[in-house]
């Protein structure tokens, strides 16, 4: 077939769902009008470890409007059967209301169900709980780690001994919480043994599978609906206990139940980026050629599940060196389970590796970009595979030119603007190009419009818009004649909306489905004696704005509408799919960036202000530049938060989170966001997927924190190896 004209892909189009959002017509999980819905409020454990010995619920149950209080003394036993398709990390799930154990502060121990939200909240405040409390273990530095996950190539210890320059560094990163604008919420309804939930989720299929496993149902007996998600950053990538609680409450009361977590409860059981203690030893020769690296890192996990993330990959493949040794230990603590947060693993590894590279460059008296260039690998040394694409050198070149890197004085504390010390820093970033099997369905109607469906999610990056762009070009239609539907488990299954895999996976499935429909129409036309295209080779026909025509003769053709009506077709339909090639990979797939930052540090007070950030990205084909900019600027803001503000604080006496609110857990606001700019290298990666995309949402946050930390060093001469960077660390 002739390549389709690309009229919408690559165009800076506005969001197709934008009007719904700004007018309040986009319905989020808690906003669906489910007839007869009552309200549920969770009672959280006020100890960090121990057992519930008593629950006095009589006062709560006597309140007007309160219908029922469910807890482990009266809850039915749930099967919690194993299901390999569930979105539950490896390990034992938290079985809510199934026993008296308290495993972390804030664990759900009861739920109050009432006719109004106010009655449920008041009832929850009246539940009296007795405990047999124990001392929880919540400090990463004072707990016994699990057996290490290890990687090694070459003899790293020998490489370090022989290195002319050696660094021995320890980094610490704070726990971070996702804090999306929309709180987690679930509405659950049972009907003749089947369950429907309206839920905030980044994976409707995973939530469907998990609920089926918990309640012992067939998968098709559960329907999950989630058309809009008000931010996620990873927090909605699994089915949390509150979703099970809502479904259980609805089953026990035989009425639909709405459960919305408070902002405080968002800190107690919906995931977080774990804190790390990361020890890195790095060696090089006098010319800056890396010889060896030893990574030893400890990370938080919960006592009842083992959570890991892809933190080792960057240390194995970002730079060329003959010897690498890694030991990654999870440390079980009396905390809720962590979860993936934007740029999972790579974001933390980037801070450590890129800060160390900057420190090495300073010790060698070498420009940080030059040091990185000297250690560019020719292939992925962790797998011995060629890179599908790798244009990091070009990212450096473009970024240095656009940022004005040549104006940076390499001598720390040498540039001032009044009372402010000015510094500039940079860092490289990498994130793997994830792809997973996905399906989509396309239907072309006789009126010339199309509907495309997939059980994907849109938590903000613009899935509705980008998938409509792909579909419109593949079908040869305008954007306004294509409707993309998502967020329903009745639609064809898709992978999680995370890991920057949606465009590559779902987009490729959408492309396949729409290509099939277009080919059906072309076949119908060239075989129809009444069509102007009769007898034309199918490969010579393209479609533009709903009209099929000969590629080199636009006057010869007809519209979809005319073709289908004449042939008595109400519609054409096709199911599309995508899956990465089976068998061993032939290439190493990653996206790359170079991030540049300029900061000002108050010489007296130690306050850090970011003045500008520039990111240059090797992210394959950009489907929507306008959406990409939203992603990139948002990632930069998130990186500023990690670098300077975000820090979840735990009281180790009882496991309580001290700053479980948006007044005390600091995130960037408008005053913290400076001049931000993103540049995307032209290109595509056809080895990765049919669309040639690499994924962008995770990549854009990686490298921001170390670029800022390196700029702080350039400004002050103070090397900070703990995030967030505080004024105290600079005084």
UniProtKB/TrEMBL annotation:
SUPFAM superfamilies: CO dehydrogenase molybdoprotein N-domain-like, Molybdenum cofactor-binding domain. GO terms for molecular function: iron ion binding; oxidoreductase activity. It holds the Pfam family Ald_Xan_dh_C. Keywords: Molybdenum, Oxidoreductase. InterPro entries: Ald_Oxase/Xan_DH_a/b, Ald_Oxase/Xan_DH_a/b_sf, Ald_Oxase/xanthine_DH-like, AldOxase/xan_DH_MoCoBD1, AldOxase/xan_DH_MoCoBD2, AldOxase/xan_DH_Mopterin-bd_sf. Residues 23-135 form the Aldehyde oxidase/xanthine dehydrogenase a/b hammerhead domain. PANTHER family: ALDEHYDE OXIDASE 1-RELATED, XANTHINE DEHYDROGENASE. This is Xanthine dehydrogenase family protein molybdopterin-binding subunit.
